[in-house]
Amino acid sequence: MTPLKLIHLLSVLIWVGGMFFAYVVLRPSVVEILEPPQRLRLWDAVFRRFFRWVWGAIAALLISGLYMIYLYGGIAHAAPHVHIMLTSGLAMMAIYCYVFFACFKPLSLHVANQRWQEAGAMLAKIRKLVAINLTLGILTVIVVELMRG
Fold first, then answer.
1. DSSP H or E segment with residue 5
2. What is the pTM of this model?
3. Spatial distance between the Cα atoms of 35 and 30, rounded to a whole number of angstroms
C-alpha cells in the first residue's frame, strides 16, 4: 500500500503546491513586473505546462485513490476521512475541468489573437477558480490529517 500512498501524496503536492506557487508567489510578482499583454502571454505558457502536470496528477490520484479504497474493502468500509477526501477531490477535479475547457482554452485563443481584454477576463475567472481549488485542497489535507489521527 505504501507505493500507492506515495503516488497519491506526490500527486497532491504537484497539484496543490503548484496552485499555491502560482497564486501566492508568481501572480503578485508578474503583476509588479509585466504589462498586461506580456503577463497574459506568460500565464498562457505557464498554464500550458502546469496543466499537463495536473492531468497526470489527476490520473494518478484517481487510480491510486480508488485502488486503495478497493483494497480497504470498498467505499462502504472506508473511514470518514476517505469519504471527505474523495468528495473534495472530485469537486476539485470538476472545477479544474471547467477551468481547463471553459476558461483556459478561450484564454489561449484570445492571447493568440491578441484580444487582451477578453484574455484578461478569462484570466480573472481562472484566478477566482484557482483560489477556490487551492482552498479546497488545503482544507482537505488539514481535515484528512486531523481525522486520520
1. helix 2-20
2. 0.96
3. 9
